[in-house]
Design brief:
alpha+beta; 4-stranded antiparallel beta sheet; 17 strands; binds fe (ii) ion
Length: 266
């Protein structure tokens, strides 16, 4: 995949120039309306930290450093270890972050410090598109994936939760992992193929250059990665948004009531 091809419309479509007047309002609008903004000018750890502090309450992660940032790179020490695939160089299946928590962090900020020599594209998927697609093509799958006990996410200490959840304010949220740390309800297993096919139909590549990044709604967008070579390094921050950025219950839905009604009757 060439850098030009992978540095696709997705980056341009969601881009906010942080140096421009009114940037904060555009970041907020981008998250509220589409759940994703793409950014640049994130040159160095301090710049990433400054941006993270501006928009989210950073929460620590098992793999994060004391400042809250996790450096995603190939450690050469985690090959084959369950739940540590992000610290290798292999491809990653579409997932949302911290799916094993009852309340996963709403936002994820990722910034590229050093691109890979080959590969290493981020693959982003709008969960609302997947939901709308499945609601039309496989409504039985949406129904099964929306059951409270659809999956056990995160291993023994994980949580039983649906993939798609309709919130009280009529929003669809998404939770997913497809590795060995999810166990599906027997009635859900047969729908995973339709789900993964729908995910593939809506996946878009994003090959970040140094200083580029994205901020996404982790309850709407799924992320994945292609395998890579070389000393690729990304910074990642997780956390909930400051209230001024994304008030709780703020609308992020972009599809019609028809799709929502599938869940309401499920
Ligand atoms: Fe991830």
């Amino acid at each position: 995949m060439s850098r030009t091809a992978a540095h696709s419309d997705l980056f341009a479509e969601h881009y906010v120039d942080l140096r421009a007047e009114g940037a904060a309002a555009r970041v907020a609008a981008g998250l509220r309306e589409r759940g994703l903004v793409t950014l640049d000018g994130l040159n160095g750890r301090a710049a990433v930290l400054e941006l993270a502090a501006r928009y989210l309450d950073v929460t620590p992660h098992r793999d994060s450093d004391p400042d809250g940032l996790t450096v995603l790179h190939n450690t050469h020490q985690h090959a084959g270890r369950s739940g540590f695939a992000g610290l290798g160089s292999g491809s990653l299946s579409p997932h949302t972050e911290r799916s094993g928590l009852l309340f996963p962090p709403r936002l994820m900020l990722v910034a590229c410090a050093r691109p890979a020599e080959e590969g290493g594209a981020s693959l982003l998927t709008d969960g609302h598109m997947v939901y709308a697609d499945l609601a039309l093509s496989h409504p039985d799958a949406v129904e099964a994936l929306s059951e409270d006990s659809a999956g056990l996410f995160g291993g023994q200490d994980g949580v039983l939760a649906p993939v798609f959840r309709l919130t009280p304010d009529q929003q669809i949220t998404v939770r997913l992992r497809l590795d060995d740390l999810v166990r599906w309800h027997p009635l859900v297993t047969r729908h995973i193929r339709a789900l993964t096919e729908a995910l593939a139909r809506h996946q878009q590549p994003l090959l970040l250059d140094a200083g580029e990044g994205f901020l996404l709604d982790n309850t709407r967008w799924l992320h994945a990665r292609t395998a890579f070579t070389g000393p690729r390094r990304l910074y990642r921050a997780l956390g909930n948004p400051h209230h001024s950025l994304l008030p709780e219950g703020s609308a992020t839905s972009s599809f019609g009531q028809e799709a929502v009604s599938v869940l309401e009757t499920a």
